[in-house]
Design brief:
Elements: H1 11-21, E1 24-26, E2 38-40, H2 42-61, E3 66-69, H3 78-82, H4 85-88, E4 90-95, E5 102-104, E6 124-127, E7 131-133, E8 143-145, H5 151-155, H6 158-165, E9 171-180, E10 195-205, H7 210-227, E11 235-239, E12 251-259, E13 262-273, H8 275-284, E14 290-292, E15 297-299, E16 302-309, H9 310-321, E17 322-327, E18 330-335, E19 346-350, H10 358-368, E20 374-376, H11 382-391, E21 396-400, H12 402-407, E22 409-414, E23 420-424, H13 428-436
Parallel strand pairs: 3-9, 19-20, 19-21
Antiparallel strand pairs: 1-2, 4-5, 4-6, 7-8, 9-10, 10-16, 11-12, 12-13, 13-16, 14-15, 17-18, 21-22, 22-23
The protein binds glycyl-adenosine-5'-phosphate.
């Protein structure tokens, strides 16, 4: 449920920036759009990939106790019987008798249709899973579902991963990918979509150590957002009340972000106990226990599940980094994205289109693009070009001027404080590399002018 507290950022501004600059477009727009589906444009796909990369780095690459997985979206239909989704993954739906719009009953405040004030029907349960048919015959036996969460792909592969990696408890499996839910209430841009991406971890632990690991993951995941620049004031933890807990959960915390629509969930961390492994063991007839070499006993591990939404994270990073500054030319819009998330890391800007500047500028551009996503822009005034890069969150602009032809130096201008420094072209890449990694000044190679020169 969304708590209506005004955030400092306007959703309309974000939607408009995303469309105008190629971050996010409504899906199938030329046909009038597809409800609650969105397409990531040239900059959006970079941003989204960077969010996923940052997550993978933190939860797989930098940990000894984690491995990755990429399971298929279509799974054996029994999976969803065992998990409880066929029976219980449903929202209460009401329909307006007047305008026929449908709403989630638990989102209705005064018993009337939010659109026209009309009378509503009695609630009925509506399963959120998308159904499809596998093979040429469309009958009950060929029904399959598009996965509504990535988690179950991990549970059904528990033994495969255990046998192939010889991991010992505690260990976890991470997976990211598309999930599908036939949501009743949509809107709010990419906050609630019918096709979206999740980043999920199932962390398997010895029963009895679950509470300690639950605490660990709540902290880890909260810090992941703040380490990537989300302001602490815009992030909070909310523990689920007992009557709010999912059927499988013993405890659950939501990490909530102050979205433009109010405080709402960005990630949930649940203690799923041994529910899923037991269910899959029962329905598949397979042994999904773990043999503990120390105690020589078989046990069904407990599971801690940090489950995040890629799209909601993207929305939070966009909203949190959006900034406006008044200056003499009007309004400067800046996305103060963490450097790791910025879609374009640097822009190469020759001062003018003069043909003398072209070879050296292209040479610099070609060498930098081997390392990062870099843009080349020589259209319009340099001031305009800086603004264009600020608006998409590019941390650094590299300007080549006529003096560069003489002294083989270029100017780096930074996005956040607009400070400038001149560096030799030969140390440009290593200087940018250090800066993009937020490294201290001392690591600059010999010959590189100290970054303090910015002041
Ligand atoms: N495996 C547990 C699970 O799926 P969830 O709270 O239903 O839990 C986890 O989903 C995360 O997935 C949410 O915190 C949210 O970020 C994202 N998510 C869920 N439904 C979504 C939707 N319709 N659109 C966008 N993101 C969604």
């Amino acid at each position: 449920m969304i708590e209506q507290v005004p955030s400092k950022v306007d959703m309309d501004k974000l939607v408009s920036l995303c469309k105008r600059r190629g971050f996010i477009f409504p899906s199938s727009e030329i046909y009038g759009g597809m409800g609650a589906c969105y397409d990531y444009g040239p900059l959006g796909v970079e941003l989204k990939n960077n969010v996923k990369k940052a997550w993978w780095k933190a939860v797989v690459q930098q940990r000894d106790d984690m491995v990755g997985l990429d399971a298929s979206i279509l799974m054996h239909p029994q999976t969803w019987v065992a998990s409880g989704h066929v029976e219980g993954f449903a929202d209460p739906l009401v329909e307006c008798k007047q305008c026929k719009q449908r709403w989630r009953a638990d989102h209705i405040k005064d018993g009337k249709c939010p659109a026209c004030g009309g009378e509503l029907t009695e609630p009925r349960m509506f399963n959120l899973m998308f159904k499809t048919f596998v093979g040429p015959v469309e009958d009950e036996a060929s029904v399959a579902y598009l996965r509504p969460e990535t988690a179950q792909g991990i549970f059904v592969n528990f033994q495969n991963v255990l046998n192939s990696t010889r991991k010992k408890l505690p260990f976890g499996i991470a997976q990211m990918g598309k999930s599908f839910r036939n949501e009743i209430t949509t809107g709010n841009f990419i906050f609630r979509m019918r096709e979206f991406e999740q980043m999920e971890i199932e962390y398997f632990v010895r029963p009895g150590t679950d509470e300690q690991w639950f605490k660990h993951w709540v902290e880890e995941r909260f810090n992941w957002y703040t380490n990537l620049g989300i302001k602490k004031d815009n992030l909070r933890l909310r523990q689920h009340a007992k009557d709010e807990l999912a059927h499988y959960a013993r405890d659950c915390y939501d990490i909530e972000y102050l979205f433009p629509i109010g405080w709402s969930e960005i990630e949930g961390i649940a203690n799923r106990t041994d529910f899923d492994l037991k269910q899959h063991a029962k329905f598949s007839g397979r042994d999904l226990s773990y043999f503990d070499e120390e105690t020589k006993e078989h046990t069904i591990p407990y599971v801690i599940e940090p489950s995040a939404g890629v799209d909601r994270s993207v929305l939070a990073f966009l909203a949190d980094s959006y900034d406006e500054e008044k200056d003499k030319e009007g309004l400067r819009v800046i996305l103060r994205l963490h450097y790791a998330l910025a879609p374009i890391k640097a822009a190469v800007l020759p001062l003018s289109r003069n043909e003398k500047l072209l070879p050296i500028s292209r040479e610099i551009y070609n060498s930098l693009r081997n390392c990062w996503m870099v843009q080349y822009d020589d259209a319009q005034s340099i001031g305009r070009r800086y603004r264009r890069q600020d608006e998409i969150g590019t941390p650094f602009c590299v300007t080549i001027d006529f003096q560069s032809l003489e002294d083989k130096q270029v100017t780096i201008r930074e996005r956040d404080k607009m400070r400038q420094i001149r560096v030799p072209i030969e140390t440009l890449a290593s200087t940018l590399d250090a800066k993009l990694n937020y490294e201290p000044l001392e690591v600059l190679p010999p010959g590189g002018k100290k970054w303090l020169g910015f002041e």
